[in-house]
Amino acid sequence: MRIGAHVDPADPLAAATDRRADAVQFFLADPQGWQAPKSRDDADELRASDVDVYVHAPYVINVATSNNRIRIPSRKLLVGHAAAAGAIAAKGLIVHGGHVNRGDDPAVGFDNWRKTFAYAREQGGFPLPVLIENTAGGDNACARRFDALARLWDAVGEFDVGFCLDTCHAHAAGEDLLGIVDRVKAITGRIDLIHANGSKDGFGSGRDRHDNLQNGEIDPAAIVAIVRAADAPVIVETPGGSTGQAADIAYLRGQLG
After folding, report:
1. Is the pTM of this model over 0.70?
2. Number of CB atoms found within 10 A of residue 139's CB
3. For the chain, what are the domain ranges?
4. pLDDT at 145 over 90
5. Which site among 32, 48, 106, 173 is 20 to 30 Å from 145 CA-CA?
6. What is the predicted pLDDT for the residue at 140?
């Protein structure tokens, strides 16, 4: 099982060494901005490395919305980040499920996701797996609660879409972590990546505040059970820099044997 961490994009391979990580995840541009990703000077090293690379798309991307001024740039930015992630041989591009505007029919958001993948297919398809991630909060979210996730997958399942399960987000969304892997796979048929994160807040809080695995409000044994059951690569997005993340990686390895 490959276990790694979300790291600063400046030197991800050095960050992997510091954490004894098998994998790294990082942004290719400001996660809160609309800038297109730039080519990386270390692209050859990333492609040749035995460290698995994952890219997280910017948080601003929301292809579900009915607001054209957000949806259309979001679609273009997602395609651009997928191309840049493919250029460094990333294993997947993680993107949040997005949301519709207050008062909008949620079906609009699911259909806008379908149109996004149909648009990409018309352009030749994404060059790597796009992994939709469950989110922590928002009454109008497309991938917070699993009833909504099922409707989303009804819309996009034909496009071979991947899924990233975040433990903190599921806990914050009010989804019971017991048996969650089976419930997700019953909807998506797959889990491509686990974001193994503790939570600073209580169950159903709707708050996306990660904590280290042996701290916070989630029983660490529950996180270990999810990782074991999913049998998928793992990224910790936990605080404490290299020291905190290295401890979380070591903890998972020790518990998983």
Report:
1. yes
2. 11
3. 3-256
4. yes
5. 32
6. 93
